[in-house]
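haha ok so turns out i had the wrong file open the whole time. this is the CORRECT one, sorry everyone. sequence first:
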Amino acid sequence: MAEVASSMESFQDILSARHSSSTSLSDVDFPSDVGSEIESDSSVRQSDGDASERELACFDAAMESLGNVRLVPELTNEERMEMQLKTAAEQTDDEGGDAKEVKPKREKKVWQWEDGVDMELMAELAQKPLSYYQGKRDVPDAIVKNWLPDVKRRWFELEERVYILEDRLGAIDRPDRSLEEDRFEILVELLDKAAQGFEINDEHEVRNIPLGERIHLEARLMDVITRKFDIIDRIVDEFDKLKGDQDGANNEREFLRYEIRQCDLEFTLTHEYFLKSYLGMPWP
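then structure:
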C-alpha cells in the first residue's frame, strides 16, 4: 500500500509540474502592431459587407424600375425560320429512326429576257430542237450573236431541271440497305455525271471561240445532259415496276453504268473540241 501511495504522489507531482509550466494567452508577448492589423481587417470586412448590401439594394431598385421591359430582343423572322427548321430536323420519325434533314423549299426561278432582244426571233427559235444549233458551226458571228439569248435561255432551263430531278429522287421511298436504295444511288451518280456538263460550259464561256463553233459545242453538251436527264425521269416514273426484282435491278444498274461511261466520254471529247477551237486547231 505504501508503494501505491508513493506512486500516486509521484503522478500528482507530474500533473502539477505540467500545469505550472503551461502558458496562457494573456502571458504571450505579441508584437504591438498585431492588434491594430486585426482591428483593421475586421473593419474592412464590415465595410465590404456594407458595400455589397448597398449594391444589392441598387440592383433590386433598378430591376423594379425596369418593370416589364424586355432585356432580350425579340427574334427576327429569319431567326424564327432557322429555329423552326432546326427543330424539325431534330425530330425523329414514328419508328424512332434518325432525324431527316429538312431543307427550305426552293422557289422556282423564271427566265428574264434582256432589253433589246428580238422576241419574235426568240419565239421562233424556241420551237427548234437542239440539233438546229449543231448545224450552225460555220455561220458567221454577226448572225449567230442574235441566237445567243435563246442558247442562254436553254442553259437556264436545263439547270432548273436539275433541282426538279433532285426533288424527285429525294422523294423515292428507299429503306436502308434495300434494293430501292441501290437503285437510287446509281441514279444519283448519273445525275452528278450529267451535271458536269455545266462545269465544262462555264470553263469555256470566257474563252474567245468563234460563235458558230461555240453554239455547236454548247448544243452538243446540252444534248448529252438532256438525254441523261430524260433517262432519270423515265426510270423514276416507273420506279415501282422493279420493286423486289433483283434481276431487273441488276440489268438497270448495268445500263446506267454504261450511260455514265458514255456521258464521260462525250464530255471529254467536247472539252477537247472546245480547247482546239480556242487554239485555232482543226477538230471533227
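Residues 1-8, 17-42, 68-72, 92-100 have pLDDT under 50 and may be disordered.
again sry for the mixup
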